[in-house]
Write a structure and sequence with these properties.
about 230 residues; alpha/beta; globular; binds D-xylitol-5-phosphate; binds zinc ion
């Protein structure tokens, strides 16, 4: 069975009770904790920031998966200097004229550099930064808000990206699916080639069950998908 990773999206947690949700997720063995950072410039929303992430780091040992939806991220990689080995920091290709600089700065911190792509952005643009990335975060919705519907074309994009990476000898680069990773879509996303599943309002934080119960349900579903 192909290894997979679940990264619950903390912006979808019960923010009035985030500490308890985080401890529950740590108890579930969450592979990552996904922290969405938005600046009301790259996307029309403002969410979590470095101080929240620092508090998460103090609260539990789970690796952190930061998703920067901010303009010119290369200017604030140092804000994340408390992250390192095992953590992921992803920047959007569309958010900077200096993408390689941002990715190199993340690598310098000791964290795993990720490049995030909006639904319309072709992955073939990544040809000159393959040495600089460990993760490609494929947005399966337009970034900025939880609770949106998965864009069907994203499945084919993930499938083609997996092939493209493998053809270039980069089977090690992980594909992260982010957006409406639901109990229904998770199976198809894994079959398409996704490795890391950002689990938000339609899975781990779905009102259908508690956080631990939903996490176990998603994990079992992915375990039983080739
Ligand atoms: C959206 C964020 C996602 C979001 C996922 O811009 O990047 O991580 O929190 O939430 P759902 O799973 O509800 O789409
Ligand atoms: Zn995200």
């Amino acid at each position: 069975m192909k290894k997979f990773f679940i990264s619950p999206s903390l912006m979808c947690s019960n923010l009035m009770n985030a500490g308890s949700d985080i401890k529950t997720l740590e108890g579930c063995g969450a592979d990552f904790l996904h922290i969405d950072v938005m600046d009301n410039h790259f996307v029309p929303n403002i969410t979590l920031g470095p101080d929240f992430a620092r508090a998460v780091r103090k609260t539990c040992g789970s690796p952190i998966d930061v998703h920067l939806m901010v303009e010119n991220p290369e200017n604030c990689i140092a804000c994340w200097n408390f992250l390192g080995e095992g953590d992921i920091i992803s920047v959007h290709y569309e958010s900077s004229r200096h993408v390689q600089k941002a990715l190199a700065a993340i690598r310098e911190l000791g964290a795993r550099p990720g490049i995030a792509l909006n639904p319309a952005t072709p992955f073939t643009l990544l040809g000159h930064v393959l040495d600089d990335i460990d993760v490609v975060l494929v947005m399966t919705v337009n970034p900025g808000f939880a609770g949106q519907r998965l864009i069907p074309a994203a499945l084919e994009k993930i499938q083609a990206l997996r092939l493209w990476l493998d053809e270039r000898g980069r089977g090690d680069i992980l594909i992260e699916a982010d957006g409406n990773v639901s109990f229904d879509s998770a199976r198809s996303l894994k079959e398409a080639g996704a490795d890391i599943f950002v689990a938000g309002s339609s899975s781990v934080f779905s009102p259908e069950g508690g956080v631990a119960e939903n996490y176990a349900r998603l994990k079992n579903m992915l375990k039983n998908t080739l």
